[in-house]
Amino acid sequence: MIRAEARRREADQRDWLLRGTPPPPWVRWPPPLLLLAITLVQLLTPRTLDLSFLIAAVPPLAALSYGPALTALVGAGVLVLLSLPVFDLGHPGNSDELTISFIALLSVLFAWVRSRREAQLVTVRTVAEAAQLAVLPPLQEQVGRVRCAGLYEAAQHETLVGGDFFDVRRGPRGVRALIGDVQGHGLAAVGTVAALLGAFREAVLDRADLEGVAAQLDRRLVVDSAGQQHAELFATAVLLEFPDDASVVRVVSCGHPQPLLLRGTEVTELDVPSGAPLGLGIAGLAPPEGLTVPLLPGDLLLGLTDGVGEARDASGTFYPLIDRLTAMVEADATVLDEPGGLAERVWADVLAYAGSIRDDVTLMVFAPGPVAEAAQRQPEREPEPRPDPGQPDAA
């Protein structure tokens, strides 16, 4: 689900020298290949050709990918080759050998420092990734009777979590999903994302309807921003519910882009009443209105954040999602067979259209299964939802 990790690893492989990350495997080959090439060329060419100056580059190249011990071994090998007359490496003098020896020693020191830095970086990054994945864990392929797939791309470089958030949970009466977007993006929004996801996971079990879930999320942000001077903490979100006893989807929108219904080759934007964003006190002002949509076998639902619709091409034109998605499905209807493949195709089309993104992007595809299948998977005992409290609490 979370392709940000894969994207970060690809960037590490591409920009390893600037990032200080472990080098890719191919970097281990230049030192021995260069040493072999210098030796062969020197043996096969006239004595007037002197390539001994190139051999000084071998230890520094080794230090880029080898550890200090192996770098020292490469440096010693270079000095041995210089001293053997059979290889005829330009007959270097004492000053040349001392210079190369000094370069080899510096290379060993550099390799030691680099190895320690890489080990520290791996430890720090492992802890950071564990913390971010604890906030936004990978999406399960199936929750209840709903197959789920999606794609998440954080706009901030080298992060797995940004301002977008999502979750899919099974509750007492069905499967509930959340897709949202916190004000701002990047690591500064992670605390708000964690608070909202925690509130959602509790509300899935406690609230009898999606309106109650939205009210609990809204109260979480209102309480968190209370006491903060000039606090402007809000988030948009869309909530979906797939009940166990009916082939429908219930949708509640809090100022968020509308989900899309894919039925055959037809792509339709659901006309969900758009309520106020979370964090503006909607629980006591204007609770959002829900929409119930009947589903047919084979229907898919696509949820997204505004990072998709706000992608622009070189002329500044916004990405026309419905038009391009319709054309995509009409050209190849098999794209609907696999939810994960559909998310990947849409993301590839966004990149082809815009070239790059400047905001977090979330795409989620839901493929509800038959109602009877969900009934067979229903556990023997399930917790009953608690009624919505009459008064907002203080936490």
Tell me, what's the shape? elongated
Question: Helix share of residues?
Answer: 40-55%
Looking at the structure, the CATH topology of the largest domain is: Phosphatase 2c, domain 1
* Rg, Å, rounded: 29 Å
Sheet with the most strands: spatial strand order: 1-2-12-11-7-8
Number of DSSP-assigned strands? 12
Second CATH tier, the architecture of the largest domain: 4-Layer Sandwich
**H and E string:** HHHHHHHEEEEHHEEEEEEEHHHEH
Mean pLDDT over the full residue set:
78
Tally of distinct domains? 2
Going by helix content, strand content and strand pairing, the class is alpha+beta
Tell me what the structure shows.
By secondary structure, the chain is of the alpha+beta class. It has 2 domains: 3-131, no CATH class; 137-377, 4-Layer Sandwich (Phosphatase 2c, domain 1), CATH 3.60.40. Helices cover 44% and strands 18% of the residues. The chain has 13 helices and 12 strands. Strand 7 and strand 8 (266-269) form a beta hairpin. Helix 6 (68-83) runs antiparallel to helix 7 (94-135) and helix 8 (190-206) packs antiparallel against helix 9 (210-225). The protein is elongated and about 90 Å long. It comes from Streptomyces atriruber. It is an enzyme of class 3 (hydrolase). GO terms for molecular function: protein serine/threonine phosphatase activity. Residues 372-395 are annotated as: Disordered. This is PP2C family protein-serine/threonine phosphatase.
